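[job 0417] fold request received: Cysteine transporter
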Amino acid sequence: MFSLPTFIFYCFTSTITPGPNNLMSMSWGMRVGFFKALPFNLGVITGFFAVMLLCCIGCAALNSLIPEIMGLMKILGTLYLVWLAWKILKAVYSLKPFEIDKKKAFISGFCLQFVNFKIMVYGIVSMQTFILPHFTDPWILVGFSFFLAAMGSGCNLIWSAFGSAFAHLFSKYTRPVNAVLALSLLFCAGSLWI
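[job 0417] inference complete; emitting structure tokens
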């Protein structure tokens, strides 16, 4: 029997906790402010939905291939998280306004989703454990994919707002804040192998 409260609790705890999307959204919010970070976050939202839809299709059609695909995604995800950690560690924050390339920000947020192992696991576990055992209608599955992406994207926006709200504090302590964010991403990378 499908348990909506358990499913929602799983979705919330999976998406509000630190991961590549939340940490990068916070970093963007710190660097450029909440509204200027929206192109990045819109890329995250769009990519998140695409990945959730792919998880749905993949789980429904390719159950036997998932372990093989996951190994490659773990390697790519680890390399990308280490690279992101390096970028954040070296980032410089300025409270002076500056322009961003909205298209590049969107593409960056979108592409992050396809190597973000955390959301892939979130999508696969959601589909395999909560959704596919109880639902088969394609439109309902698309609706669940949208719901999963909306939960994650909402949490990304919360983290971006948090970064923006505390930008003044973070700018005073750039090195320690960058170190904590970078170490958090490295922890995410390491946790892929545990």
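[job 0417] notes: The chain has one domain: 22-191. Residues 138-165 form the longest helix (28 residues).
[job 0417] exit 0
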